[in-house]
Amino acid sequence: MTMEGGRPAILVLGAGGHGKAVLDLLLAHGGWRAAGVVDAAPRAAAVLGVPVLGDESLLPGLVRQGVGAAHPAIGHNAQRLAAAARLAAAGFALPALLHPAAVLGHGVALGEGAVVMARAAIGPEARIGRLVLVNTGAIVEHDCVLEEGAHIAPGAVLTGGVRIGAGAMVGAGAVIRPGVAVGAGAVIGAGAAVLADVPAGVTVAGVPAQILPERMRP
């Protein structure tokens, strides 16, 4: 079950919208064969023609059958990290995934379980940490550092030398000025223009971005 036509099998955990995006990546990639999908609460028989096998109780058996790799296809950062821990505990490797329509500059480092979606562009010597999600059409310029479990949403732009802390979320279409640091767990609202460092755990939005009162945070 591990190889078919020279392609290794990989399991996808998550049958939601992000699971569909990851399966689309695998179908376009050609280097992997999707072994199936598992989900905590399966609601469909298949996603993009790939069968939904059942829930996570199947994980040990799939390892025994020879499926050696898996990906936690969950958009929510904390839930993605927790799912990755369950997959690793079951014995799966967590390879980095790169859509063939993404662009990587020289010297880019991709951590375990990171995923770079279609039309994303990663500049030279950027560091993409473990389980980071760089979503469709995002730009992560030269020398940026994205720490574990961060998510850069579709169309966001990180100019040179930006640092994104662990578990932080950069919303769709946001733009971050060169050299800015975003703290762990912070949330950057969609379309925000971030001109200064963002403390850990806060939510910012607007042009220029300002910290939102707690009652206005998602």
UniProtKB/TrEMBL annotation:
Residues covered by the PglD N-terminal domain:
10-86
Where, if anywhere, are coiled coils annotated?
A: none
Q: Where does acetyl-CoA bind?
A: 151
Amino-acid positions noted as binding substrate in the UniProt annotation, renumbered to this chain: 75
* A Pfam family this chain is assigned to: PglD_N
The GO molecular function terms of this record are:
acyltransferase activity
InterPro entries in UniProt:
AcTrfase_PglD-like (IPR020019), Hexapep (IPR001451), Hexapep_transf_CS (IPR018357), PglD_N (IPR041561), Trans_hexapeptide_repeat (IPR050179), Trimer_LpxA-like_sf (IPR011004)
**Keywords, comma-separated and alphabetical:** Acyltransferase, Repeat, Transferase
Matching entries from SUPFAM superfamilies are given as: Trimeric LpxA-like enzymes
What is the annotated signal peptide range for this record? none
Q: Where is this site: Increases basicity of active site His?
A: 143
Residues forming the catalytic site: 142
| PANTHER family in alphabetical order | ACETYLTRANSFERASE, UDP-N-ACETYLBACILLOSAMINE N-ACETYLTRANSFERASE
Q: Which family does it belong to?
A: Belongs to the transferase hexapeptide repeat family.
Designated name of the protein = PglD N-terminal domain-containing protein
